[in-house]
Specification:
11 helices, 2-enoyl-CoA Hydratase, Chain A, domain 1, 278 residues, alpha/beta
C-alpha cells in the first residue's frame, strides 16, 4: 500500500514504521494517524512480521500535533467543533473482538496489537508524540532524543490516557513533574527515570535498535511474546490472584503448543530455533 506520511518496510521479520514529515519534525496529522493505524494492523496480520519498530525520519520522532491544526482550534476557525465532537465520541479506536474496552480507544489500541512494538525515539517526542511513545512496549532513545509532555504549556491537560500510562512507567512523582512542568527531558534523564530502556549514540542508534528487534523476531517464540504482552497489559486491570489464574491457564496451553516443543528441542540440540508461532 502507498502511504503519504509514513514509510513502511518489512525485512528479517521486522516491520519498520517511520513517521515521514521530517520538515515538520513528524508533527501528527489526521492522515498520519490513519496510516499508522493501517500499517500496524497490516503488520499484525502479516505472518512474515514478528516485531514492529515505530520511529521517525529525520531529526524528530514526533513533535506533537501539527501546530497548524492547533492554531485553527485556538482561533475558533471551525476547528474547535470538530475536536469537541471527537472528544464527546470518547475517542473510539478500532473495534477488535475480545479486546478489553480500555484497549479500544484512540492510541490505547497499540496495547492490544498482538506483536511487540518497539519505540525507536530518534529525536524530539513531545505532546502527542510522547503519548505515542508511551504506548509502545519498549522505548529506546538516541542520545539526541528529547521528551516533553508539552500540554500544560499550551493550556491543555494530560491527553489520551497519559495520566494513566506515565505514572506506571516512571512513578507518580516523576509523572507529575513531567506533566506539571512540561519541561524538556534529555535522553540520559529519561533513562534514569525509566522512561526509556536504553540510550544509544545517534550514529549507531538505528543499527542497535534493529539488532534487538531482529533478535526478538528470530530467537524468541512469537507465541510467547503474544501471550506475555496480553498478560502484562491486561494484568494492569487485574488483581494479583486473577493474574495468577490467567498464568496457570496459559501455562497449560503453552505446554501443548509447537513452540514449547521447539524451544526444548533447539536448546538440547544446540541449534538456532525455528519457531512457528503456534
Amino acid at each position: 500500500m502507498a502511504y503519504q506520511e509514513i514509510i513502511y518496510d518489512v525485512r528479517d521479520r521486522v516491520a519498520t514504521l517511520a513517521l515521514n514529515r521530517p520538515d515538520k519534525l513528524n508533527a501528527w496529522t489526521p492522515t498520519m494517524e490513519q496510516e499508522v493505524l493501517e500499517a500496524l494492523l497490516s503488520a499484525e496480520q502479516d505472518d512474515n512480521v514478528r516485531v514492529i519498530v515505530l520511529t521517525g525520519v529525520g531529526r524528530g520522532f514526533c513533535a506533537g500535533a501539527d501546530m497548524g491544526s492547533l492554531n485553527s482550534v485556538a482561533s475558533e476557525q471551525g476547528g474547535f467543533a470538530a475536536i469537541e465532537k471527537r472528544l464527546r465520541e470518547k475517542f473510539v479506536g478500532p473495534q477488535r473482538a475480545g479486546a478489553p474496552a480500555d484497549f479500544q480507544k484512540t492510541y490505547s489500541y497499540l496495547l492490544d496489537i498482538k506483536k511487540p512494538i518497539l519505540g525507536a525515539i530518534n529525536g524530539a517526542a513531545a505532546g502527542l508524540g510522547m503519548v505515542i511513545a508511551l504506548y509502545c512496549d519498549i522505548r529506546f532513545a538516541s542520545d539526541k532524543a528529547k521528551f516533553s509532555t508539552a500540554f500544560a504549556r499550551r493550556g491543555l491537560i494530560a491527553e489520551y490516557g497519559m495520566s494513566w500510562m506515565l505514572p506506571r512507567v516512571v512513578g507518580i512523582a516523576n509523572a507529575l513533574d513531567l506533566l506539571y512542568s512540561a519541561r524538556l527531558v534529555e535522553a540520559d534523564e529519561a533513562l534514569r527515570m525509566g522512561l526509556v530502556s536504553r540510550v544509544f549514540p545517534l550514529d549507531s542508534f538505528e543499527s542497535e535498535v534493529r539488532k534487538y528487534a531482529v533478535e526478538l523476531a528470530n530467537a524468541v517464540s512469537p507465541r510467547s511474546m503474544r501471550v506475555i504482552k496480553r498478560q502484562v497489559y491486561q494484568g494492569l486491570l487485574q488483581s494479583l490472584g486473577e493474574a495468577i489464574d490467567v498464568a496457570n491457564e496459559e501455562m497449560v496451553k503453552a505446554l501443548a503448543c509447537e513452540d514449547f516443543k521447539e524451544g526444548v528441542a533447539h536448546f538440547l540440540e544446540k541449534r538456532a530455533p525455528a519457531f512457528s508461532g503456534k
